[in-house]
Amino acid sequence: MKNTLKILSKKIKNKKVLIVGAGPVGCTVANILSNKNFNINIIDSRNHIGGNCYDYKDKYGLLVHKYGPHYFRSNKKKIIDYLGKFTKWIPGNYIVNSFIDKKFYDFPINLNTINKFFNKKFTPSEAKKYLKKISLEKKKFKNKNNFETYLLSKVGKNLYEKFYKNYTIKQWNTNPTLLSENIAKRIPLKFNYDNEYITSKYKLMPKFGFTKMFEKMISNKNIKLSLKKKFIFSNQHLNEFDIIVYTGPIDSFFNFKHGKLGWRSLKFVFKSYKRKYKQHCLQINYPNDFKFTRSVEYKYVTNQKSNFTSLSYEYPKSKGDPYYPISTQHDKKILKLYNIEKKNLEKQGIFFAGRLAEYKYINTDEAVGIGLSLSKKILKKN
After folding, report:
1. For residue range 155-193, what is the model confidence (pLDDT) as tens digits?
2. Between the CA atoms of 50, 235, 376 and 28, what dihedral angle is there, to the nearest 10 degrees?
């Protein structure tokens, strides 16, 4: 019996895993499997770990998010407890305003927003009745299930056009009637005075940043990290590794054989100012002014003390790093073909996981959850 256990232990220890992508999913899988004596090779095409969560200190020593703000939130205590092994947490006070007609309004829309915009003093029940009165009925629209009709049926024409329409056109460069109503459903509508941007139970930030947290996750003798290394799949990988976890773009893995999937990209312009704060809150949306969609002042969530402050200004664009899946009907048809292919490859020990590999928008906590679930699946099979 002891000899059998030794043999089994040796087999597990010799399991070699290739993880493509050092983002939240890749780092989570690497952490879990390396602690079970799997030998892990992580590769990433970028020069850093952490994926789009990567943060760094600028020339003034201020922690900023290179790829735009990542507001960590979750409703799952197990995610918080798991990541808590690698970071201390600080509160994430995520306050957002929208700049409309030279005035600042709470966003997402709440009772303050409604009363200020319409110059009223509604109670919550009165505000609900009023929005219902000015909203348009879905049945009157030819195409009932899209971004625009969903919001017109919830907030009416005035609020939709001032707060949502132009922001969405800038963000997606697409007619809002062609976008899924699921995008609109991600933005809550509140009939109270709660001005928090996020409604999740846990709203936190890693005290020393996301990058430091991920560094601790993959600090294990069983993990080898290679940066600035592009991945092109070949059968040689199957000979070299027992398991492959791929977190890159799914269409790229298959060399775009069924076509390219549509993504929106972003350009970030960072500016520093010699003053304690530039804005009165963390984030300001600009639906109807300027070419950028929002400005973010990171000190509001890093809690750093400095006489300088740094902001990012966000410009949506068509080409560049993939951020948001456009997910048109054409994209969905292409994705279906790739999903058939990836299902067959799982039998050979190749797993696809994460935002790029699954072609869907996910938050950081969801990415970590995907990594935990996939690790459990791999351990069960091995």
Report:
1. 999 999 999 999 999 999 999 998 888 889 989 999 999
2. -10
